[in-house]
Amino acid sequence: MDSQQVTSEVPESDVRTLVVDDSEAFLEVAADVLGATPGFVSVGVVSSPDAALGLLVSREPGLAIIDVHMPQMDGLELTRRFKELRPETAVALISADDPEHLPPGVRDSKADAVIDKRHFGPRWLRSLLPRLASH
Question: What is the pLDDT of residues 2-56, one digit of tens each?
């Protein structure tokens, strides 16, 4: 899988979703889940925070799913930058850490949601729809 996969055609009614994670395996899962979940469409599945910042401006996602732990820039810093550049984009931080072992600052970040990677899937995405509608 290309770590900078971008979709060009996006239906107007779908939630434009950008996924940022340094795990190629998770990016593949995320692309599959987004493709199988009605109401959501991928506008990018990338491993680089810099690529994500570029797509934030050019693709205008309604939802960004950002890994907490990345080598170039952690998810907290990337969330802060996303909210500065495009506050209307909802951000969900995602981590394989147990919720009680998340790094300091995650709960106080400007993220709109925090999810354990083990719960990521169509049901979780659909649970976000009411929150995204009011965002």
Answer: 455 555 454 558 999 999 999 999 999 999 999 999 999 999 999 999 999 999 9
Per-residue pLDDT reduced to its tens digit, 51-103: 999 999 999 999 999 999 999 999 999 999 999 999 999 999 999 877 677 77
Map out the domains of the chain with their CATH numbers: 4-127 (3.40.50.2300)
Residues 120 and 33 sit within 8 Å (Cβ to Cβ): yes
Q: Residue 3: CB partners within 8 Å, gap ≥ 6?
A: 24, 27, 45, 46, 47, 48
Beta bridge partners of 42: 17
